[in-house]
Amino acid sequence: MHVSAPRQRVVMAALLLNANRVISVDRIAEYVWDDAPPPSAAATVRTYVMRLRQSLGEHASARLLTRAPGYLLELGEHESDLGQFTAHRRRAAELAERGDLEGSSAELAEALALWREEPLADIPSRTLRDVEGRYLKELRLQTMELRLDAELALLRHAEVVPELVRLVRKHPLREALVGKLMLALFRSGRQSEALDLYRRTRVLLVEQLGAEPSADLREVHRNILSAHHRPRTPDPLEQPATAPEVAVATAPAAVRERSCWPSPAQLPSVPLPLSARSGALARLQHFVTTGSMPAGMVATAVVTGRGGVGKSALALHTAHAVRGSSVHGQLYADLGGAGRTLTARAVLPRFLADLGVPRDEIPEEESERESLYRSLTAGRRLLVVLDNASSTAQVRPLIPGSGGSRLLVTSRRRLADLDGARTLLLGPLDEAGSLELLGSIVGPARVGAEPQAARTVLTVCAGLPLAIRIAGTRLLERPHWSIGHFARRLTEAPRLLDELCAGDLGVRPCLDADHAGLRRTAPAGVDPAEVFTALGASGASSVSGSRVAVMFGCSEEQAEEALDALVEANLLGAPTGGRYRLDPLLRAYAHERAQAVAVPEHSQSYRRAG
Question: Which residues form the OmpR/PhoB-type domain (predicted)?
């Protein structure tokens, strides 16, 4: 069936690529409108699906099912190229397990014959091509590597050299390919070329990534230098699959070992980076890619800051930028923050399955799962991204085994007890960065026409990217509003946070999560939540420890402890000149909390102390 309407083609492609899995309406909308869906997106997607069903006909349309929160397309394994490809790969793995490398290589060749050079070329969706297209390209490249491993294990080193030369030229930083080419060159009697390739690759890695070659590639180099793998040409009468040297090769490891493991590529897509974050992005990339760790430790970077400040976006931009150095793949999990914590017990089975462990072989015992995870990741170069961690206890079981892997964590907490972690505190955007972000949403011309009103909006948003995105979305949805009109709504609103909501986005849920994670004091101390509520009742924009001590009849030390707990929870700005400050968003939230409880005595004490 040919679907001529461009946007319906995007919907159809999204359904096909996620065959037999539910894909949400929101995700389809992101693909159709390239991450900028209009308010009517959900209804329009439903219309597109209805038209697709009409085009498919009665029999085929019965397979396009409505399943919350979206749709599911039922498809047999042999009814799509991707399904057939997956079947060939599965059969190849089964044959390799039985020692039939000839058959495994043939199945992988059949799988690759189904591909064309540029997947999704006729699908008019940059986002779909970026997310699914990259995945498909990576899958194809991994399959090519598996077939080359099989060919090397069959001692067809001379035959695969031309193909490997072409692939390495196209992917010069993909160390797995470089190692295979070095091995093939050496076995073909071209030792000097293999060593020169290693030298050139090392220079390229250091110059572009600031990283030395991986342990696997260094091992290939050492084996060649020591002539551990002697070049040999198999006897024509010899059965290649029974050659005793097959299992010795460093790269293939008889196909059934490390080279057969999947290389997950799980990083979500992200919006374009802001120039205002370029410095933080460079620092975080430096944290992740440089420096060696003591034996037994994994290089770890933590991005911390208040909710909505852009931690996840910065971490994911960094992760995408350094993917080339994580040659064995990238694992990603959203741990949910304080509101809906996802434990390592829930994440580990998925990570293990993504690393190639059959689900029925995943241990039941949590400690055994952790041990298996560390064993599978030890000595590999993976990038593990853990988003929205609420505690170090969530993170520790998910730290990969020692070796060349990297761990990137985002959290509202500092996670100071995460051993060896380098921390980047991400603050609010400055005025220039805030104007850039607002202009990227509503257009620079609209901002330039009302610069003072735009600055008023951004002052209320306190440099918080989430708040600015919501403000921009509201203005974009209401082209008849002037920025000045919206600025007046924000400054005059009885409940400011009600104005900063757009669809399922809101500033209040972020603040609720911060408040829910607030550390409580010992019984003899002052409750930080009560201090926050009292500040809201008074309308204070700043406070000192001495004033809180008067308000609550406690020592200054106890007052400082409560205020520091609020800073730790991102509900108060760090002290400058002895005063702790609340920006407009925090003042509005504190006022809401105060309205929910009775605090007359504390607010009166504050006024007397002021």
Answer: 1-75
Secondary structure class of 598 (helix, strand, coil): coil
Report the C-alpha gap between 340 and 338 in whole angstroms: 6
Coil, strand or helix at 330:
strand
DSSP per-residue codes, 386-454: EEEE--HHHHGGGPPPSSS-EEEEEESS--TTSTTEEEEE-----HHHHHHHHHHHH-HHHHHHSHHHH
- Give the mean pLDDT of 152-181: 90
CA-nearest of 377, 425, 407 to 300 is 407
- For the stretch 559-564, contacts whose Cβ atoms lie closer than 8 Å and that sit 24 or more positions apart, written own/partner, are 559/526, 559/531, 561/521, 561/525, 561/526, 562/521, 562/525, 562/526, 562/527, 562/528, 562/531, 563/528, 563/531
Angle between helices 157-170 and 134-153 (to 10 degrees): 160
Residue 118, token pair as written in the block:
């540029």
| Burial status of residue 554 (CB atoms within 10 A of its CB: 0-12, 13-18, 19 or more) | middle
pTM to 2 decimal places: 0.57
Each residue of 415-434: pLDDT tens digit?
888 888 899 999 999 999 99
Region of 272 (left: φ > 0; alpha: ψ -120 to 50; beta: rest) is beta
In sequence order, what are the residues at sequence separation of 6 or more whose Cβ sits closer than 8 angstroms to the Cβ of residue 553? none
DSSP H helices, 98-133, are 101-112, 126-128
pLDDT computed for residue 315 by the predictor: 94
CB 184 within 8 A of CB 150: no
Q: Which two tokens stand for residue 416?
A: 């100071």
Query: Hey, which residues does 58 pair with through a beta bridge?
Result: none
**pLDDT class for 254, splitting at 50, 70, 90?**
very low
CA distance 530 to 423: 30
In this structure, is the dihedral angle defined by the CA atoms of residues 402, 408, 412 and 414, taken in order, positive or negative? positive
The H-or-E segment that residue 468 falls in is helix 465-477
Per-residue model confidence (pLDDT) at position 246 = 30
Q: What tens digit of pLDDT does each residue of 537-566 get? A: 988 899 999 999 999 999 999 999 999 999
3-state secondary structure of 382: coil
**Nearest of 2, 25, 5 to residue 15 by alpha carbon:** 25
d(CA 551, CA 534): 9
Phi, psi of 385 (to 5 degrees): -110, 120
Q: Are 264 and 331 in contact (CB under 8 A)?
A: yes
